[in-house]
Each structure stands twice: as structure tokens, then as C-alpha cells.
Design goal:
The protein has 315 residues and is of the alpha/beta class. It folds into 2 domains: 31-110 and 219-314, D-Maltodextrin-Binding Protein, domain 2; 118-209, D-Maltodextrin-Binding Protein, domain 2 (3-Layer(aba) Sandwich). It contains 12 helices and 12 strands. The protein has helices at residues 2-20, 44-51, 54-57, 70-79, 89-97, 147-158, 173-181, 194-200, 227-232, 234-252, 255-266, 288-296, and strands at 31-37, 60-66, 84-88, 102-107, 110-112, 118-123, 138-141, 167-170, 187-191, 204-209, 217-219, 221-226. Helix 6 links the parallel strand 7 (138-141) and strand 8. The N and C termini lie far apart (54 Å).
Length: 315
Amino acid sequence: MIRSVRRQCLFAICALVLVAAGVPAGAQTLEVVRIASPAVDVTGNLFYAMDLGYFKNAGLDVQLTQLSAGAPVVAAVIGGAVEMGSANFVAISAAHLGGAPLVLVAPSGANSVKSPIDAIVVAKDSPIKTAKDLNGKTMMTSALQNILQVQADAWIDKNGGDWKSIKWVEAPPPQEGAAVASGHVDAATITETFLSAAIGTGDVRLLANTGAEISPLVVEGGYFCTTDYAKSHAELIKKFSKAVLDAGKWANSHRDEAAAIMAKYAKSSGKSTGHAVYPETFKARDLQPLIDASAKYGALKSSFNAADLVIPELR
């Protein structure tokens, strides 16, 4: 009994020493998760969760590598350079159809007709005013056969143009506005936060917001890992998913604060006027319209059931 009391006193003294030293009693080492992602508005819930401490509070040390497009992110996950990635769903789907063992564990942002974040821009003095005017023109996107190209093709197709006649080239998002303004390309499809920065220069103008032709709410992508990692780190995946969903919920009601965080990570000048909508709940069916459109416009070789590419909890 005396020994037990002494032991409890010793534990209490140790706890006090730890607190006095600034180390929380019972503190545990954070689980490290390496993740690759572009810094764009649609991946904002990742950056908000990092910046506001959602991951740390969940016991996770999320270590970021910024990559500019979905394909390199997918390659990094498959190659084991990182455990998780964030990419547009077209890039993830293409890898899935190619046999890559990937699963989606949480959504990133969505492009909404009420809050559009993706658009086609042209030079301020360009004669291009309609979808038909784009026929045979050269357009730029951040990566070929990505979600931005799919949405632009859908807009051109459904507004009187010939999407098959477009010549597509790629460049990193910060360069797209300048390429349009200089006449290097006829038009570009750009996402936030870079869209507002490009228009803010006064050298380019908005031709059309895109995405509504596919769905009123286009879930553009999400966070994924290999099937083996998801199976062996089920609890970590739950913590990660909850953190990004909670961060997205915060951003939906704190638009200005969220935009400031994204501008910091994206190193973008100018205030973003668009803002992704971050799903607070998510199921595989939310991705099906984008999968079907991607197959129709040639970004994917075929359509498939979205449930085949998500963890069981999201089916």
C-alpha cells in the first residue's frame, strides 16, 4: 500500500516536472505522414488542416512536398516517395485504370456553380468571345488530360464549339496568365488561386466559368494512398480524413481567412475571388459525373464505377 502511494506520488512529481518543462504529461510522438500536393484552392482543406493545427491535434505530423500537377503526385505515391497524395480525380482515375493499386480516402474541394473556381481566360483584347471562336485554337492547362481540360472541353462542346479541334499545351499554373497575355496561346483554363491573380493583372479577361456542364457540384479530387497503406494504417486514415473534413467545414464559413492561408502557400499575389466548396460528407457517387465526363472527352479510356476507387467506408 505504501509502495503504491509512493509510486503514485512519483508519477505525479514526474508529471509536474514535464509540465514545468513545457512537455505535456503523457505526450506521444506524432505519426509522420508524408504527402505530395499542389497548392491550389481545391486542395485547400489540406493546407488549412496543417496551418490551423487540425493534424497536430489528431496526433499527425503531416510533412508536405508541393508538386504542381496530379500525375507527378500519383507517381510519388506509387513509387513510395510519399505515403499519401492529393490530386485531381482524373489523374487518380487514369492510374486506377492502368492497374495502380490506389484508393481515395477523403475528398478535396469542389467546383460549384455558386462559387466557381475554374475558368477559361483570353487576352483582354482577344477577338474570342464564344465557344465557337475557340475552334482550332491553342489552349493551355496545368497538365494535359486533367480535370481543367475536361471541364473546358465540356463547356466548348455544350456551347457550340468543337472541342476536338483544340490543340492543348501545358505549363505550371503561375505561367498560364502571362502566356495568354503575351499571345503565346489563345486561351487557358486556370484554377484558383491563380485565376484571380491572372485576371487581376488586367492583361486577361474571363471568357467562361467551367464545370457546370458536368455537374452543379464537381468534386475535383481528393487524398489517396496505396491499398496496402490504407489497410495497414486504418486508424491513421480515419484521423487524416476527419482532419481535412473538419478543416474544410471551417473554410466554408471563413472564406477570407482561408484565402489568406492559401495565398501564403501558393505564393500567389492578389486576393482570390473564387473559393472551392469543401465537402463535409462524401460518398463515391459524388465522383461519378466527373468520371463519366472524363471518359466522354478522352481524358480516360473508359468510365468505371467510382466505388471501385474508394475505401469501404466511402462506398
